[in-house]
């Protein structure tokens, strides 16, 4: 008898080289990965030139975090973005009410 899970097996091979099936999720990631593979270059990568010292410090800080700490940091940023969204929404609503109360300009 066939086990219930054997009917779910797929023998299809997915070619990860296909840019259509696996588009680059974040622009610049492939370039960054390539630059990490051959670090023996004299000039720093293009993206490094645009960084300020604050950015570099932040990168070092993030790079030193454990996975758990990094996840906490990301959650914190998501919460902050959510709070900012709520605040913006409130301000927009308030603006609409204020516009309604203003006398129309002649």
TrEMBL record:
Listed GO biological process terms: regulation of DNA-templated transcription
Protein family according to the UniProt entry: Belongs to the lin-52 family.
Cellular component terms per the entry's GO annotation: DRM complex
Superkingdom, taxonomy of origin: Eukaryota
Name used for this protein in its record: Protein lin-52 homolog
Organism listed in the record: Lates calcarifer
InterPro entries: DREAM_LIN52 (IPR018737)
Parts forming coiled coils: none
């Amino acid at each position: 008898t066939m086990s219930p899970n054997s009917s779910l097996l797929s023998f299809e091979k997915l070619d990860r080289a296909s840019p259509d099936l696996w588009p680059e999720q974040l622009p610049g990631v492939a370039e960054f990965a390539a630059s990490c593979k051959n670090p023996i270059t004299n000039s720093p990568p293009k993206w490094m030139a645009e960084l300020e010292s604050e950015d570099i410090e932040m990168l070092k800080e993030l790079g030193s975090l454990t996975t758990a700490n990094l996840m906490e940091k990301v959650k914190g940023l998501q919460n902050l973005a959510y709070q900012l969204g709520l605040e913006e929404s409130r301000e927009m609503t308030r603006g609409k009410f204020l516009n309604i109360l203003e006398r129309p300009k002649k």
